[in-house]
Amino acid sequence: MTGSDRICAALDFPTWSAAEPFARAVAPGVGMLKVGLELFVAEGPPAVRAAAALGRPVFLDLKLHDIPNTVEGAARSAARSGAALLTVHASGGSDMVAAAVRGAGPEVKVLAVTALTSLDDADLDEIGLAGPAESAVVRLARLAVRAGARGIVCSPQEVHAVRAAVGPGVLLVVPGVRPAGAAKGDQSRIATPSQAVRAGADVLVIGRPLREGNDPAAAARAIAESIQE
Ligand SMILES: O=C(O)c1cc(=O)[nH]c(=O)n1[C@@H]1O[C@H](COP(=O)(O)O)[C@@H](O)[C@H]1O
């Protein structure tokens, strides 16, 4: 895998017309494009199709979390959009993750989000996921993989432990990635791209560090070079 193959660029924009120039600029230098809640709520499946037309697999990040029957239906609808990957929250439980896998069908990889990278140990404690983060994340990752998830979303700080727990065949997708010196924003559990890859990340989800400069393609190139093996 080249460095650029490992980068997933987050299209966190309010409309497709706002996202398109960025998506076109970064697509040749990344392995995947992510349509998340902001864009999907505004534009729906056409945004997934427009992103896929740029020639990269699309990760539809809906972080589904509801009763199993509802999630199964939502995953079935999401699969019709042409997305290659779809997120659900592992904390929805085994039956919910299994329902998402059924709904998504064989063409769409269900990824389970463990504990959001914006949460620190105190936040996790407050929502009842008593820390340290790593133990909650590993527990949720195991549950999700047992229920059929083909990938796990976790922070770079837990990726090593998650890899040890779930083995080599599971795709580890890692947001909360900040090149040295980049603003942390609302992220808590962060590391640099090269630290994340060395710890075992397969894919790095990167948004603001690519979007905030005036040359997203150059930003993607610099990150790709920093993780080239
Ligand atoms: O599922 C995700 O992609 C995700 C999970 C998570 O725990 N944390 C997280 O930041 N993300 C997403 O990853 C992207 C990170 O964006 P930046 O913080 O701007 O690099 C956003 O699109 C988030 O929605």
TrEMBL record:
Catalytic activity: orotidine 5'-phosphate + H(+) = UMP + CO2
Record-linked SUPFAM superfamilies: Ribulose-phoshate binding barrel (SSF51366)
This protein's record includes keyword Transport: no
Active site: residue positions: 63 (proton donor)
Known function: Catalyzes the decarboxylation of orotidine 5'-monophosphate (OMP) to uridine 5'-monophosphate (UMP).
Recorded family membership: Belongs to the OMP decarboxylase family. Type 1 subfamily.
The protein's name in its UniProt record: Orotidine 5'-phosphate decarboxylase
Phylogenetic classification of the source organism: Bacteria, Pseudomonadati, Myxococcota, Myxococcia, Myxococcales
